[in-house]
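Narrative progress, year one. The postdoctoral researcher (J.K.) led the effort to move from monomer predictions toward full complexes, under supervision of the PI. The following entry was the first complex the group processed end to end, covering 395 residues in total.
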Amino acid sequence: MRVILRTPERKEYELKGPLRVREVLEKLGVVPEGVIVARGEELLTLDDKVEDEETIEVISAVSGGRG
Amino acid sequence: MKCAVCGRKAAVEVRRQGKAFCPEHYLEWFEGQVKRAIRRHRMLAPGERVLVAVSGGKDSIALWEVLHRFGYETAGLHIQLGIGDYSERALEVTRRFAEERGLPLYVVDLKEAYRLAIPELAELTRRRACSVCGLTKRYVMNRVAVEEGFDAVATGHNLDDEASVLLGNVLHWQTDALVRQGPVLPAKEKLAKRIKPLYLLTEREILAYTLLRRLPYQHEECPFAQGAKSLLYKDALNRLEAAMPGTKQTFLEQYLKKIEPVLAEGLAAEEVELTACERCGYPTTGKVCAFCRTWDRALSFAKKKGKLAGEVRFEPAPKPLFFAPSAS
């Protein structure tokens, strides 16, 4: 599967599927609390399964430097 | 995972409440949370006009959308910081959001109003960009709100912002800052009320709302935020949250409930009375307010270094540009 990481710089990874979203984040070392995972326009929960041929995006929710 | 309301497939999990929701019920839950916060803290009375501070990021855009949907009379205030393309794109997305909804927008361009942008201000004063940027934004927001007749300034501060600020203030025992941490700062003479309607929603929950409502927002991070301590605190809190859901909310809410009132009472005797700044007339604890001091000094340095003409004078008024909603 293709995993596009936007944290917020864009990086791409290839992982062997199927995997649950929780496992994808573990493999990439991403803390689930700081991101939303999307497949196209569909938002996924940690239990959702991602198939090998699919593409998902991991979008960072964290912003810093707020005055 | 199923939606807690209708049993359909869930799209967003709210672990701290042990619930998950489908898109439709998530939007309903999210807006309900904001409505509850506004009511609980009496943030807004009917008919009050709200100036929403809009950077173009997900939090302020989501906040403006929610307040607009609730039927409040709102206008946006965007401050052009002059941080290269990043600031250009922030203005673009903010204007698009306002235009699409027919909402009024004020824009203060720092370079036009005060002759310097944030990177130059930071360099000339030898201070961190986030520090001078925060000082400037707070001043401009308040002054525009007071002068344009708004009852409140609403900011997009969220649970992660508030919990990380609390952690930073506790780690350094910044008692004076700790007592200013509440979701509502009441109005005083020439100080508009400040409210934080999203203070109990996490950044992740706000991002989910923004994506599900398909709101335009600026994805990229401010280049000066890299390495900011707030990011370190947020990461630490998110790691705790992953292991113990609800940690951030408990940390903040219990502080506001149990500690803040005691601290505020204990520090009341030390409270310095506010007087009018000799330069701009707005409230300060000294003779000249921090905003006027900082910008006046920066302009003097800029003139000495030949970056500005000698006749340029510091003028504290922010001179906002007003974009009225289009007739359509």
